[in-house]
Design goal:
The protein has ten helices and no strands. The termini are far apart. It is mainly α. The chain has one domain. It is found in: Cell membrane; Membrane. Pfam families: TauE (PF01925).
Length: about 260
C-alpha cells in the first residue's frame, strides 16, 4: 500500500511539473522511482521510461489535434531515433547502475542550466522555418543525424529526452518552436517505449508501479495545466524554481553514487 501511494504521488509530481511549466518533469522520473518508490537502479530506469512514454503519447495526441505537429520531420526523427535508443538502452543495461546514475546526475545539471536560459518565443525559432513540403535531402540528413544521437542518449539514460529533441528539430529544420515541441513528443514517446521494451526483455520493468505512476501523472498533469493558466505571467520564475530543484536532486545523486568512480565526499 505504501509503495502504491508513493508511486501515485511521484507520478503526480512529474505530471504536475509537465503541466505547469511545459517540460523537464520527466527528468525527475528516475530519481523518484529510485529514492521515493524504492526501485533498484536499472529497474527504476526501465519503469520510468515506460511511464514517460505513455505520458508523452497522451500529450502528443493533444498537440496533434491542435495541428502543432510537422509529421514528416516527426516521423523521420522518431524512426531513426529508435535505432539510437535501442543501442543506447542496450549499452545502459550493461553499465554499472551506480555509475549510470552518477552520469545521469551530470545530465540533470545540464538540463537545469538549459532551463535557466531564456526560451525562444512560442511562435518561432528565430530562424527561417523550413516548410513541411520542402524538406530537402540535406535537411533530412540533418534530422537523421540528430535523431540517432538524441535517441542514443535517451536510451542510455532512460529518459524521454524532450529537452534534447526540441533543439535537435529546431537546428536541423528551423521549424517554429511550437511545432518542434508538438513534433518532439512523438519521439519522446517512441524513445521511451523502445527503452522500456528493451529493459522489459531483461525483466527490468515493474509494470504495476508503472501503471500507478502513469495514473498519478495524468491527474497531476491536469492540475498542473490549470495552475499554469493562472500563473502564466510567472512562468520564468517557475522555470527557475524547478531548475533549482533539479540541481538539488542532481547533487544528492552525485553524493550517493560518487564512490562508484572512486570519489569520496
Amino acid at each position: 500500500m505504501e509503495q502504491l501511494i508513493l508511486a501515485i504521488l511521484s507520478g503526480g509530481a512529474v505530471g504536475f511539473t509537465l503541466g505547469l511549466i511545459g517540460g523537464g518533469g520527466s527528468i525527475l522520473a528516475t530519481p523518484l522511482m529510485l529514492y521515493v518508490v524504492g526501485l533498484a537502479p536499472h529497474r527504476a530506469i526501465g519503469t520510468g521510461a515506460l511511464a514517460v512514454s505513455v505520458n508523452a503519447f497522451v500529450n502528443f495526441a493533444g498537440h496533434a489535434r491542435k495541428r502543432n505537429v510537422r509529421w514528416r520531420s516527426a516521423i523521420i526523427f522518431a524512426i531513426l531515433g529508435i535505432v539510437g535508443a535501442l543501442a543506447g538502452s542496450t549499452l545502459g543495461k550493461q553499465f554499472d547502475g551506480k555509475k549510470l546514475l552518477f552520469l545521469f546526475a551530470i545530465l540533470m545539471i545540464a538540463v537545469g542550466i538549459l532551463m535557466l536560459r531564456r526560451r525562444a518565443p512560442a511562435g518561432g525559432s528565430g530562424a527561417e522555418a523550413v516548410d513541411e513540403g520542402s524538406l530537402d535531402l540535406r535537411t533530412s540528413l540533418q534530422v537523421c543525424v540528430a535523431a540517432l544521437i538524441v535517441g542514443a542518449l535517451s536510451g542510455f539514460f532512460g529518459i524521454g529526452g524532450g529537452f534534447l529533441i526540441v533543439p535537435g528539430l529546431l537546428f536541423s529544420t528551423g521549424m517554429p518552436m511550437i511545432f518542434a515541441i508538438g513534433s518532439s513528443l512523438l519521439s519522446v514517446g517512441t524513445f521511451g517505449l523502445t527503452t522500456a521494451v528493451n529493459y522489459a526483455a531483461s525483466g527490468l520493468v515493474s509494470w504495476v508501479v508503472a501503471a500507478e505512476f502513469i495514473a498519478g501523472g495524468v491527474a497531476g498533469g491536469l492540475i498542473g495545466t490549470r495552475v499554469a493558466m493562472t500563473l502564466a505571467p510567472r512562468r520564468a520564475a517557475l522555470n527557475r524554481v524547478f531548475a533549482g530543484l533539479v540541481f538539488v536532486v542532481a547533487i544528492y545523486m552525485l553524493y550517493r553514487n560518487a564512490a562508484s568512480f572512486g570519489m569520496q565526499f
